[in-house]
Each structure stands twice: as structure tokens, then as C-alpha cells.
């Protein structure tokens, strides 16, 4: 119920104005978002890399409504990738891209516009010596995103995909994508989805996550286990062990600001741990999805609105 309300608020411009107008919001946002610009993103990446962590950077923005905005997003990623290279961080950091931020929703040509724009980002990533993962958005975009992935992989075989365990279809998608050379980030899923396409019960989502993990670990690709759930982390390690996987043949991923001590502990224990670091001005949708995931985050948010 709370989750549904928060996810609805994530799409409401009235609530957005209210949240953004509060001067204390920024303090809380800073816990989850690296900063407003490229230099803040590079600074955080450098600090995480020094601690032995890997990074994927997300230039915040989604639901782009015109091609100029989509173009600006591409330029932002290109600038970021050039800076990563200059800072000697490209071996530690890749980028995560939402196709809706590069034009996927721009009418009947949206798919093609997003593909062309994503291709420009992939070219810059290849020049910098790193790669791209395509984030997954709501279920209406899954087929388009997977089509775009397969088009991009012709020239950029390292491009990764995200699959969401809450969707009924995902176990099958995992089997199909668990091929040699593919990189698949498995998450539970962050959007409000109808029962016709997604499991609604948390336990069912968890069971699906384990089935998907098994398919990925037993397959030939490179699984990226994106979760903060200690149980899923333990099961992923067990499945990797029973599939005979070496530590460098899969990785764990967590979000910036969530369980940072655990991120550090896992890296020190010899796991490859990648932190998803969002940055940029358009933090609202991302921030509200994080609050929706966890009542404790809402408590943290409300407390900081009330206290200085
Ligand atoms: P949950 O089911 O939310 O929580 C399970 C347990 O994890 C909790 O009981 C608690 O023990 C622990 N935990 C969770 N959150 C916290 C916290 N804040 N502090 C302390 N403990 C906590 N979703 C998409 O739809 N598309 C994407 O492209 C996408 N990319 C992602 C990339 C990464 C790297 C990550 C980590 C997540 C991504 N997500 C994405 C979000 C994801 O789908 C989930 O919404 C989010 O990760 C919460 O699910 P969870 O597996 O962490 O566990």
C-alpha cells in the first residue's frame, strides 16, 4: 500500500514540487545521489575505487519528452566517459543508461532514436575502455529494450541488460540471455506493475529471484547480482559455488548509499562489488523509488525534514 502510494508520488508533478521545495530534501537526497554534475560523479567514483569497489554511473533522467533533451543526455554521458578515461577510472567504472532518457518514448520513431543515441554512448564507452548496461524500466518497455540490446550487441558485445525477477516472463528471459558473452544484471524490480505481468507477493518475487539466479549462474554469461537482500546474496554465492564459478565470473551490485558497510565488507572478502551511483539534477523519480522500497528510508526522510 505504502509502496504503491510512493510509486504514484514518483510520477506526480504536484508532489514533486512539494518535495523539491523543501530545503532539507537535499540533505536526504545526498545520501542516495552522488551530486549534481560530472565532477561530483568522478569524485565519488574515485573514492569508491580507492576502497576496492567498482562503479556503474547513472546520469539521472527518464521520460525524456523531446529530442533536444535526449541529445543533452547523450552529451552528458559522453562528457562523463571522457572524464572517467582522463581520471584513469574507466577500468573501475561503466555507465548505466535508461532508454527513456535517450528518446525511447518519442513517438513512433522512439525506438530508433533511442537505439541511435545509445549507440553513440556505446561508442564513447568503447573509446574510454569501458562499457554500458541498459537499465530496465516498466514492463511496457521490456521487449523494446531487449531488442535494442540485441542490436547494440552486434557492434558492442559487452553491453549488459537488466532483468526484473518480479515479472512472470523473466525466468525464461534469463535462460535465453544466459549465453556466452552476455552480461545480465538481475534485480527484483522497482516499478508498480499489474498482477497480469508481475508477482505481487514479496515471497513470490524472492522465489522467482532464486530461479532466475540459478538459470544465470548455471548459464554461460556473466551474472550481475543486484540486491541488498542478505538472503539473496547468500543464495547467489552458494549457486555460484555449486556451478563451479570463479569469483571473477560474476559480481554483486548495490545502490549508492544503501548498506555501504556491507558493500565494503564484501569487497574486502574478495567479492567483486559494483556500486550503482546516480548523479545529476533529475533525482526525483529515482529518489522516490528508493523511498518506496523501504519504510525505514521514509522514516529517515521524514526525520530529516523535521530536524535540522
Ligand atoms: P528488498 O526486497 O527491497 O529488501 C530485502 C532486504 O534487503 C531487506 O529486508 C533488508 O534486509 C535489505 N535491504 C534492502 N534495502 C535496504 C536498505 N535501504 N538498508 C538496509 N537494508 C536493506 N530496478 C529496476 O526496476 N530496474 C533497474 O534497472 C534496476 N537497476 C538496479 C541496479 C542495482 C545495482 C540495484 C542494487 C538495484 C536496481 N534496481 C533496478 C532496483 C531493484 O529492482 C530493487 O527495487 C531494489 O534493489 C530493492 O530490492 P532488494 O533486492 O535490494 O531487496
From TrEMBL:
Binds 1 FAD per subunit. Pathway: Amino-acid degradation; L-proline degradation into L-glutamate; L-glutamate from L-proline: step 1/2. Substrate binds at residues 98, 289-290. FAD binds at residues 136, 164, 188-190, 202, 227-228. GO terms for molecular function: nucleotide binding; proline dehydrogenase activity. It is an enzyme of class 1 (oxidoreductase). Its cofactor is FAD. It catalyses: L-proline + a quinone = (S)-1-pyrroline-5-carboxylate + a quinol + H(+). This is proline dehydrogenase. It comes from Actinopolyspora saharensis.
